[in-house]
Every structure is written in structure tokens, then in C-alpha cells.
């Protein structure tokens, strides 16, 4: 992984999602996003996120969402719970276009949110 490229992308995510920090876990590349605003029937209105960049930029990162997320009071269906850094997260699998030639992280997060809750671009 190109550490300078990762630092640049971390800064870009922080600009779009204030309070973003890198989570220091040996052998991992994790970015904590403290506030992701949800739309639609989801509650709470904001949740925490964790961008898993372990194989980035060769592969699209995975966005995990805090396990406090609910839809109509219930845990979302088709999610898997993961424990990372003593915190529980939901993962949600879907296909999204990604090219290692253009490895920007902010579009990955925004694409996930569009796919997840149908928000406009």
C-alpha cells in the first residue's frame, strides 16, 4: 500500500466526513467515520462507520456500519455482525463499481450510501 496515497485519501474522507480518524491496528488499514447521516426509515439519524481498506487500492474497501442501526426498530436483514477493535459492526455485501486506477475513498462511501438507502447522487 502506498502510505502517501492512503494519507491523502484519509484527509479527503476527513474533509467530507469531519472527525474521521485512522484506527491503529497492526496489519490493518481502517478508517473510522464517526458520523454517517442516514436517510429513509433508518434510525438513529447518524451512525458510526468503519472503512476497511486492508486490500486497497487493489480491491474496493468495505464500509461497515455501527450495529446500533435499526429499520422500523429492528436490526436490518441481510447484514452480518463483525467485531473489530472491541466494537460491533454490521457489514452489508453488494456489488459496486470500483477501479484500482481511480482508488478515491470518498466515492466508495457515497456509492455505498446510494446503494444502501437509495439516496440521490
Overview of the structural elements:
- Helix content is 22%, strand content 31%.
- The protein has 121 residues and is α+β, with helices and mostly antiparallel strands.
- The chain has one domain.
- The chain has a six-stranded antiparallel β-sheet.
- Strand 1 and strand 2 form a beta hairpin.
- Strands of the widest sheet, in order across it, are 1-2-4-5-8-7
Helix content: 10-25%
Number of domains: 1
Structural class: alpha+beta
Give a count of the beta strands, DSSP E runs of length 2 or more. Answer: 8
Strand content: 25-35%
Give the ordered list of helices and strands. Answer: HEEEEEEEEH
Task: Give me a quick take on this structure.
This protein has helices at 3-16, 105-117; strands spanning 21-23, 30-37, 42-43, 46-52, 62-66, 70-71, 80-84, 87-91. The protein is an alpha+beta fold. The chain is globular, with a radius of gyration of 14 Å.
